[in-house]
Automatic annotation (TrEMBL):
Signal peptide: none
Keyword field contains Ribonucleoprotein: no
Transmembrane segments: 113-133, 145-169, 181-201, 246-267, 279-303, 315-334, 341-362, 519-540
Organism of provenance: Nocardioides anomalus
Protein name, UniProt field: YfhO family protein
Amino acid sequence: MGWSLALALLVLGPGLGDGFLLVRDMVWVPDLALRSDVLGLGSGLPRAVPSDAVVAVLDEVVPGLLLQKLVLVGALAAGGVGATRLLPAEATLVPRLAAVSLYGWNALVAERLLMGAWPLLVGYAVLPWLLAAARRWREDGRLPAALLVLLPLGSLSASAGLAGAVALLAGAAGRGRTARAVLLVAVANAPWWVAGLLHAGSATSDAAAAGVFALRGEGSVPAPLAALTLGGIWNTQVHPGSRTGALGWVALLALVGLAALGVRAWWRGTAARDRTTLLVCWAVGWALGVLTWLVPGAFGWAADHVPGAGVVRDGARALVLCAPLLVVLVAHGVRVLVDAVAVAPARAVLGVGAVLLPVALLPDLGWGARQRLEPATYPAAYAEARDALAGTRGDVLVLPLSSYRAPAYNHGGLVLDPLGRVLRRDYVASDVLVVDGVALAGEDPRVTAAARALEAPTPERRAAGLAALGIGAVATDRTAPAGADQPDVAGERLVDDPTLQVTGLADVRERHVPAGWRAAMALAWAAFVGGPLAAVSTAVRRRRTRR
C-alpha cells in the first residue's frame, strides 16, 4: 500500500495544493447541488450520471475541495494495491511491486487523468478488486458482500460500468451465477441506463464523432500497437511526449517483451478459469479499441441510428479491460527475469529496475504530469452569482454557447465550463464539441431552442423566448471568446461584474418533468444505493454475531 500511495502522490504532485483541479472534463466545485439534471432528469443526455449525484451527496459531508483530492489519490493508490490481488498468493515482493508500479503508472492513467476522466479512473481502480471478488464468488459459491459495493463504485460512468460488467460476467458467469451477475450489473448501472432510456429520443450522436474519438497512434507507434501498452487516446494533446518519440517504441518492446517472458509461468501457475477471465477481458478491450480505429464508419452509423451506442465510440476507454492481463503477465515476466540471475546483488539491482521501469518509460506522468495539473481558485463573482440566483425560478442559460473554456483563473488550461455547476441550479449550456475544427452536434434540444430564441430581433423578445423554455436567468462569461459580444436580454441585472453578467428573466414557464420520469429515476437510484446499503448491513450483522 505504501508504494502505491507514494506513486499516487508523485503523479498528482502540485495538483494536491490549495484549489480545485480543473482539467478538461474534470470539473469539481465547492458545493455541487443535488438538482434534477444531476439525478438524470435534465433535458440533455445524462453524461455525468451517476458520478455528479454521488459527489453532490458526499460533498455535504466532506468539502468538495478535499473530496476531489481524496478521490484522486484513493483511486490511483487503490488500483495498484488491487493489481496485486490478481497475482498468485506465493508471489514475492518484487513482482508485486512491479504490478503496483505498472497499474498505477502507465499511458492510460496519464491520458485519462489529463482528460479529466476521473469516474473512469475510479472504475479502473475498482477493476482488479472486482475480478478478485468474482473469483471468490466462483470458488466459494457465496456472493461476496464486497461486490455490492464494488460494482456501483466502479459504475460512476457508463463506460466504466460497461467495463465492470464485462469483468464480472467473465469472472463469475456459470453454474447459476450468470443471471445473478446480470442482475447485479443492471442494478449497479441503473441510474445511467434508466436515464438514457428516458432520453432515448435524443440519445443518438453525430456520426462524425466516431472518427474523431477513434483510437489513435502515438507518434510513429500505430494505434493497435499503442493499445498493447494501454495508450492511444483520441486527443493527441494529452499524449505524453515520451509516448510520441523513441521512448514510445522502447516502452512497447520492454512491456510486451516482459509480458511474453511471463506467459509460460502464468499459464502453468494459473487456473484455467482465471486465465480465461483475463483473456476475455483483454480480448474485448483491445478488440473494441482497435475496431474504432479500423472501422470508425460502423461505429458512426451505430451512434447515429441506435440510441446510446455512442457510449462505445471512445475506443481507448475500453483498454481498461486490457490492464489486468498486461500487469499480471509483466509481473510474471519480472519474476522469471529476476529468478534467472544467480548473484544476489545483481538480482536486487534488477528487481529495483523492474519496479521502477514504468516510471522510467513514462517520466512525464510524474509531478502532476510535469505541472500540467495545477489547482485553481474560482473568481469571487461566481459565488456572488450563486447567491444572487438563490431565490429565482427556472434554469440558467450559460453563455457564450461553447462547451470549453481556457480561463485565466485556471492558468489558461482547457476545462469544461464550470460556471453552471457552481451556480447550484439546473442549467443549459452548449454540448457542441469542436475537435480539430470539426463541430460535433450536441444532443440537448434545449440548447438549439435557446440559440434560436437568442436570434430574436429585440432584447424583450429574446427574454420572452427563453422564459418560455424554462430559462429564468442568463449567465454570461465575459472573459470567454465572444463573451463580450453576446445578444442583450431584457431583465433584471443580478450581477454586473467585469468578468460575469447575470440577468434574471420574468414570467418564466418552468420546465415540466413528467411524473413517470421521476418515478423511474427514483427506482433506479433506490436500486443503485440498495446494494451498498445491503452490504453495510450484512457486515454490521456479521460483526455483531461474532461478538
